[in-house]
Each structure stands twice: as structure tokens, then as C-alpha cells.
Write a structure and sequence with these properties.
The protein is mainly alpha-helical and about 200 residues long. It has one domain: Tetracycline Repressor, domain 2 (Orthogonal Bundle). It has 10 helices and no strands.
């Protein structure tokens, strides 16, 4: 890997952690300089703007989260089992998050709502990817007879994602993992008994 590529990746990784903990608006170029150890010119040599860096940093953050989820889902073949391990993987967010600051989709979606449309669109794409993964697991489970044919995949995806994100938010707000644990426990029971 070239020195320029290494530097670019270092900037992206450091910015991803920074943006995910302090937010895009709360992170200045000075903060990015301190985190990377680079001067302003060194950062702008690789990115035209802070927004371009934020998009690359979000992509990196989402890739970290996605990799963890996909790795655990691949360990199972039954649809309900795949959903169960997916749910369990979120418990690690408390003690071993993919990167500091919580869920990058949640953080970016909340912060970018009307202020940063490019970031909002990127968060929407990531959420669509997550919804699609859950939907594919459910639809394959229906086709194999592992999940009831009356289950609506997109409805279940909404319930799972909303409950997980709410649990993450509450656990971060109260600095107590019990809220995410309760959300995951509820979802595991829901998957086992209602699908």
C-alpha cells in the first residue's frame, strides 16, 4: 500500500471515531488535525472538504458494523438462528463496540436529518442495506418453511431495527447496558415465538 493510501486510511479511521463520538458538526478541522497528527493541508490533500471526509468516514464506520453482523450471521443456516445471532451481536456494542460512540447509523441519522443531506442520504442507504439483510433472512426462512408464511419481512425489519436502536440510545443516555439487554431479550423472544 502506498504512503498516500495509508495516510488517507488513517484519516478516515480517526475521523470515523471522532465523528461518531462528537458528531460531524461538533468536530472541527482542528479536532481532526489533533486526532490524525496532520496539518490542515495534509488532510485537504486527501479530501476536498470536511463533508467529503465525513462521507468516507461514515462508509468506514458502517463497514465496521456490517462486517461484524455479516460474520455472525454466516455462522448459522436456519433463518431464526441467523436472526438470533444477529441480535446477540448487538450486545457487544456496550463492551466492545465496532468503533467508539455507538451506532454510526443512529448517530448520523439524528445529526444529519435536515442539516446535512449528503450524510442523511448515506445513513439512509446504510439503513436500507440493514433492512434488506433482515428481509432476505426472513424471506429465505419463509421459502424454506422455517418462518411462517404470513410474516411480513419489512415489518419485522422495522421492529428489530427500531427496538435495537432505541435500546442503544437508552443505554448510552443512561450509561447502563440494561436497556439494550432488555431490548435484545424482548426481540429474541419475539423472533422465537412470533415468526
Amino acid at each position: 500500500m502506498s504512503k498516500a493510501r495509508e495516510t488517507r486510511e488513517k484519516i478516515i479511521k480517526q475521523a470515523a471515531s471522532l465523528f461518531n463520538t462528537k458528531g460531524y458538526s461538533g468536530s472541527s478541522i482542528g479536532d481532526i488535525m489533533r486526532a490524525t497528527g496532520l496539518q490542515k493541508g495534509g488532510i485537504y490533500n486527501h479530501f476536498k472538504s470536511k463533508e467529503e471526509l465525513a462521507l468516507a468516514a461514515f462508509d468506514y464506520a458502517f463497514q465496521c458494523v456490517s462486517k461484524r453482523i455479516r460474520e455472525v450471521v454466516r455462522t448459522k443456516t436456519n433463518a431464526k438462528d441467523r436472526l438470533q445471532v444477529l441480535l446477540s451481536s448487538y450486545l457487544s456494542y456496550i463492551n466492545d463496540p465496532p468503533l467508539p460512540g455507538g451506532c454510526p447509523i443512529l448517530n448520523t441519522a439524528v445529526e444529519s436529518d435536515d442539516i446535512h443531506p449528503a450524510l442523511r442520504d448515506r445513513a439512509r442507504q446504510a439503513m436500507t442495506s440493514w433492512r434488506s439483510l433482515i428481509g432476505r433472512i426472513i424471506e429465505k426462512g419463509i421459502s424454506k418453511g422455517e418462518i411462517h408464511s404470513t410474516v411480513e419481512a419489512d415489518v419485522v425489519a422495522t421492529i428489530i431495527i427500531s427496538t435495537i436502536e432505541g435500546g442503544i440510545m437508552m443505554s448510552k443516555l443512561y450509561q447502563d447496558p440494561i436497556h439494550l439487554q432488555r431490548a435484545i431479550d424482548h426481540l429474541k423472544e419475539y423472533v422465537q415465538n412470533n415468526l
